[in-house]
Amino acid sequence: MTTEATTGATSAGRRTGGCLCEAVRYETPWPPLLTGVCHCRHCQKQAGTAFSVLVAVPFASLERTGELTTYEDGSDSGNPVLRKFCGKCGSPVFSETPDGMAQGMIFIKAGTLDEVNDLAPTLHFWTSSAQPWVPIPEGAHKLAAQ
Ligand SMILES: [Zn+2]
Ligand SMILES: [Zn+2]
After folding, report:
1. Which 3 state secondary structure label does DSSP give 70?
2. Other Cβ atoms within 10 Å of 135 Cβ, number
3. How far away, in angstroms, is 95 Cα from ligand 1 center?
4. φ, ψ dihedrals at 106, nearest 5°
5. d(CA 45, CA 40)
6. Cα 1 to ligand 1 centre (Å)
7. Which of 105, 119, 125, 141 has minimal CB crowding within 10 Å?
8. Residues above pLDDT 90, as percent of the chain
9. What's the CATH code, domain 32-142?
10. Cα 98 to ligand 2 centre (Å)
C-alpha cells in the first residue's frame, strides 16, 4: 500500500491551490502553459496591488470544487474578462477570456497556488500602466498592451 500524500503536496504533473478561506479548491496540470504578469489597471484594482501574476493552464484538465462568483469585466483592450472569485473571502482565483477559452486556456491567479516558490514569469503584459516603482527584470518579454 502506498502512503497518502500530505495535503497540498505536489504530485507529479499536478498542483493544488485554492482561495484564502479554502471554500474554493482546485487541482491543475503542471507546469503551466505560460506564466505572466499583468500590469493593467483592472488587475491592479481587482488584486488591490500593483499587478497580477497569472499562470495559463488547460481548462479541460482543471478540477475545481466550491462556489465562485463571476464579475464580467471590460478590460483595457475591450475584450471581456470573466473574473472569478470566492464570494466568501474575496480571493480572485481564475480569469477567463474569449481568446484564452478558444485555445482551451484558463488563467489562474498564481498567488492562490499552494506552492509558489518556483514561479518564473517570463511575460509582462500592459507594461504601459506598470507602476513606476515595480522593476521588470532585464530580458523579460514585455508587451505595452495585451
Ligand atoms: Zn474563499
Ligand atoms: Zn490585467
Report:
1. strand
2. 8
3. 16
4. -125, 150
5. 9
6. 34
7. 141
8. 84
9. 3.90.1590.10
10. 14
- How far apart CA 20 and CA 30 sit, in angstroms, is 21
Strand order in the sheet with 63-65: 14-18, 25-29, 63-65
Q: How far is the CA of 19 from the centre of ligand 2 (A)?
A: 19
Find the 2 Cα to ligand 2 centroid distance in Å: 42
* pLDDT tens string 22-68: 999 999 999 999 999 999 999 999 999 999 999 999 999 999 999 99
Q: Cα separation of 111 and 53, whole Å?
A: 7
Ion ligand 1 neighbours, Cβ < 5 Å = 19, 21, 23, 86, 88-89
Q: Sheet of 34-38: strands edge to edge?
A: 69-73, 81-85, 92-96, 105-109, 52-58, 34-38, 123-125, 141-142
